[in-house]
Amino acid sequence: MLAAWVWPVNAHAETVLERAARTGVITMGGRTDLVPYSFVDGKGQLVGLSIDVAERIAAEASTYLNRPVRLAFTAAPDANTLFKQVHTGETDLACGVQFTWEREMFVDYSIPFSLSGIRLLTRSGGLDGTAASLQGKRIGVLAGSLGDATIKSYAPKAVRVPLTEIDAAVAALQAGRVEALAGDSILLAGAVAKTGAKGLALVPGVGLQRYAVGCIIPENNSTFRNLMNLAIAKLLQGYINGNRDATESVNRWLGPSGILELPSQVIKDYFQMVLLTNEQIRVPADTTPEAKP
């Protein structure tokens, strides 16, 4: 899918860090409707786990450069536009991005800070998610998405119905215009939480396709990539250690009292698995008010 667009990149262009040192700005692109990664809340503020992660990356760059560095966010209309902007260097950073090996050919990824996969959102007691159950059924997909591609190969006899945005897709499911939605399980769960939809379930129990979720930057920015990975590793290690700031940041979106209500131990186990492939980061242990000195 992505091989069709390969834009020329100036090999001698200014790096992300060089530009940040000169301007004090790191440009970030993304969507504004993807709960819990990046979305506009009830107060009109852009929030989400991706925004929190990006702010930590900017802070790490600021420390390295010994000067203030801020994020400048620009909304992208779709995933392909965002990848083009990052690939060409028009945009420095995007977070909350699904990893695929094809995409890795055009941009550089960070270590992941989330894990997701393609599942089906359907009415409770409806489809079970097997290929046979989808035959001839109207399955809503976001055009050009991983969910679209997965259903095309997994259940070729399903009728794929292209939809433009995730909230509208949930509305179409509730209205009976489609019998299921295929997409990123975290984003589908986030949309259900955001819209307050009832009587829906994710199937099957294990994703049809699983992948890591992280940040992307233009290729050939090795120092900035190292800082990006260090910022994410500190967040993950901080959560494992019970650091208050890291714990609040992650739990606000993913944890037991957050939007997705995932058990803390599940999050810790995944973060530990990610960090096992890298060096352990020294982050202060539990700094919550209840912690003993």
Q: How would you describe this structure to a colleague?
A:
By secondary structure, the protein is an alpha+beta fold. The chain is 38% helix and 22% strand. It contains eleven helices and 13 strands. The strands form three sheets. Strands 6, 7, 8, 9, 10, 11, 12 and 13 form an eight-stranded mixed β-sheet that branches. Strand 2 and strand 3 form a beta hairpin. Helix 2 crosses helix 9 (222-241), helix 9 crosses helix 10 and helix 9 packs across helix 11 (264-275). The longest helix has 20 residues, at 222-241. The chain is globular and about 60 Å long. Mean pLDDT is 90; it is low at 1-5 and 288-293.
Which descriptors apply to this entry?
293 residues; alpha+beta; eight-stranded mixed beta sheet; three-stranded antiparallel beta sheet; 11 helices
How does the overall form come out from the CA principal axes? globular
Radius of gyration over alpha carbons? Answer: 20 Å
Helix content: 25-40%
Separate helix tally: 11
Residue stretches low in confidence (pLDDT < 50, at least 5 long) are 1-5, 288-293
Strand content: 15-25%
What is the overall pLDDT average?
90
Q: Can you write the helix and strand succession as a string?
A: HEEEEHEHEHEEHEHEHEHEEHHH
What can be said about the biggest beta sheet? 8 strands, mixed
- Measure the end-to-end span: 54 Å
Derived structural class: alpha+beta
- Strand tally, please? 13
Oligomeric form: single chain
Explain briefly what this protein structure is.
The chain is of the alpha+beta class and 293 residues long. The protein has helices at 16-23, 49-65, 79-88, 101-104, 131-134, 146-154, 166-174, 185-195, 222-241, 244-251, 264-275, and strands at residues 25-30, 33-34, 38-40, 46-47, 70-75, 94-98, 108-109, 114-123, 138-142, 159-163, 180-184, 200-203, 209-217.
